[in-house]
Amino acid sequence: MQLASHPEMGHWRLSLFGLTLGLVTGIDFSSTLMMGVASQHIQGGVGAAPEDYLYAISAYAATAVLMNMVLDQVARRTTYKRFTIGSLLVFILGSLICAEFASPTGLITGKAVQGLGAGGLFAASRILVQLVSTPAERGPLMLRFGGGAFSMLAITPWLTSIFLDDIGWRAVFLFQAGIALPVLLSVALTYPTRAPRDPHPPVSTLDWPAAIAAALGALVFLHTLQEMRYTRFFSSLEMPLAALCGLALFAFSGWRLYRHPDPWIDFSRLAGRQYLYGLGFYTLYYLLSSAWSFLLPSLTQTGLGLTFRTTCMLLSTSGTVSAIGAVAITLAMALVFRKRRVIAIGFVVYACAAMLLSQQLMPGAPDYALVPVVLLEGLTPVLLMVQVASMT
Q1: How far apart are CA 303 and CA 296, in angstroms?
Q2: What is the pLDDT of residues 190-230, one digit of tens each?
Q3: Which of 20, 104, 193, 216 gives a 20 to 30 Å CA spacing to 305?
């Protein structure tokens, strides 16, 4: 394995570089997953009402949206290596804030800081893969990228459950900070020291009112949707008005971009059929994935009475299937034709997993009855997310 743009990187450094790209992405994925799995422990530990906990989740999402929008501007001025190191440091700081301040305000503040750190990690890793390699060189890097990202999802729930029994709810955030440190060191040692040449022209100056309006719109709109877990949408005027406020902020951001002579997001360039298909598939996948991440821990712990450690073992089993599947599908990518059919199969597998889960939801159901459910769900990232990423 060799990169024409970086001949100074030997085989072992390139292998570790690809793995590190995946681990960096896994930091964001695993952080989001554990907020759903350990929600009861964290809420009880900080004394947060359900509304406060939702604000913490929404704050993470909103600052992550903002960081994704400014990613290109920051990375072009600092390089993607420095951007990733800085983002991991901010993520560690946010994790320590969550662990140290046992209050709803501390949790919301810490998750907002975490979102600023982790929000751009996935996008930065994917962009860097494309900048340093040609399409012919990309396969080995993506193999290690997928293995690293999904391995984090496999080990994080299991290890967190072990530490939580000994330390308590703070273990969720202390573990996130602790696992980010060796990843940060690996970034410093393996990422290219010379900035890759970007073949695309630089984007225009960021329109900060539009960016901030989009982030605030995400905060308001996502929080309103999440509050529907506890409240009917039309039970009062507050939720419909909040949703309209979020949509208005999005509309204001779009209006600013439409009127700008050189917008940093040009919607006319995003109107291609393949891009819109990919965006639609991504949206549907993450909608289902987020719902699953919330429902499965809630149903197993609250509904079936399974322990936190058992739930984490089930999630680790699902993550292990995803990691093995990601490696296998990447090795056989040349044999996978008509990716949209594979994506359709992925949605069918998701439906089968949900149907099987519904049949197992009965009092006294043993934990092993859910193993086929998580095995099926573990295949869905490979059949859906990996395929959409390769298409777009």
Answers
A1: 10
A2: 998 765 555 555 555 677 788 888 878 877 877 777 777 66
A3: 104
Chain mean pLDDT for the chain? 83
Which residues contact residue 362 at a Cβ distance below 8 angstroms, ignoring those fewer than 6 apart?
none
Contact in structure between 81 and 24 (CB atoms under 8 Å): no
- Cα dihedral 371, 372, 377, 379 in deg (nearest 10): 110
Categorize the per-residue pLDDT at 185 as very low, low, confident or very high, splitting at 50, 70 and 90.
very high
The pLDDT tens digits of the residues spanning 26-73 come to 898 888 888 878 888 888 888 888 778 888 888 888 888 888 878 887
Q: DSSP state, 366?
A: -
Q: What angle do CA 331, 85, 389 make, to 5 degrees?
A: 30
114 token code pair: 């975490």
Which of 103, 100, 114 is closest to 57 using CA atoms?
114
User: What residues contact residue 326 under an 8 Å CB cut-off, 6+ apart?
Assistant: 146, 147, 149, 150, 381, 382, 386
Q: Give the chain's domains with CATH numbers.
A: 7-191 (1.20.1250.20), 266-392 (no CATH)
DSSP, residue by residue, 254-304: HHHHHH-SS-SS-GGGG--HHHHHHHHHHHHHHHHHHHHHHHHHHIIIIIS
Q: In a 3-state reduction of DSSP, which class is residue 64?
A: helix
Q: What is the DSSP string of 160-207?
A: HHHHHHHH-THHHHHHHHHHHHHHHHHHHHHS-SSPPPP-SPPP----
Task: Give the pair of three-digit tokens for residue 181.
Answer: 């440190």
Q: Measured at the alpha carbon of residue 118, what is the angle toward residues 112 and 119, in degrees to the nearest 5?
A: 80
